[in-house]
Amino acid sequence: MIFKKITVREDDVFKNKLDIVSTSKEIFKKNPGIIFYPITGALLSIISFVLLIMISKGSGAVILALILWYLLFNTIVVFFNTASVASAKIALNGGKPKFSDGTREAFKRMNLIINWALFDGVFSFMMGLLADLKLTKAFAYAGEIAWAFVKYFIVPVMVFENKGVKEAIAESQKLIKKSWGRSLSGEFKISFVSMVPFIIVLLILIFSSVLKDEIVTYSLFVITIFTFLLGSLINFSLRSIFCTVLYMNAKGKIK
Predict the structure, then answer these.
(1) How is 187-210 classified by DSSP, letter by letter?
(2) Domain boundaries, the chain
(3) Angle CA(200)–CA(204)–CA(206) in degrees, nearest 5?
(4) CB of 230 within 8 A of CB of 36?
(5) How far apart are CA 230 and CA 238, in angstroms?
(6) Once rounded to an integer, what is the mean pLDDT over residues 23-41?
(7) pTM (global) more than 0.85
């Protein structure tokens, strides 16, 4: 069991130079079903977008539909992120999570998920508006970076501690102060690993375009899109697992 493998070490996992990203990858390899959370979320987002646009097109309320979809999209992302973290929690404790296990835990926290999705969505939207103004552009960019750090552990805090928005933000802020360096390093490694196949195929695509072979070029173009989407899904899953392991370490749940 992964959790037991970590806990038997005498010192802190980082002092023993245990690569937490490798641990996250190991969890993902043993529980590949976690990738179905972002897949389902992506499909629901696309379906909801199409339905809202179709419904609003005749009434002329397209702008309202886009606003509703933006809020719904945020809710869907937080919901399946919560499900991913819940499954990672089960895996770290030696269990074998099913798809329904994660969604069940997410549904239990539906009120927290909706509150956080709305709060984060409105805040991010406001930062986006400020970024469009010359006088506040620098402030908005700095605010977005700071906000990304502050909210880093929000979902694990909701899953493990069932805290509301205000309490979760305060707790996440405390935790990120302890582990911001590890967070940055881990995020970079995960993004790099997830995107390597896409970069390789993209380079091959560029090279093939020089050869002017249409069949090869079109085939590689399709493969490039596929590897990019697959890399994005893997990135979402690995980041959820990584964040969970990092949270458990920061809270002293892994020693």
Answers:
(1) HHHHHHHHHHHHHHHHHHHHHHHH
(2) 2-250
(3) 115
(4) no
(5) 12
(6) 90
(7) no
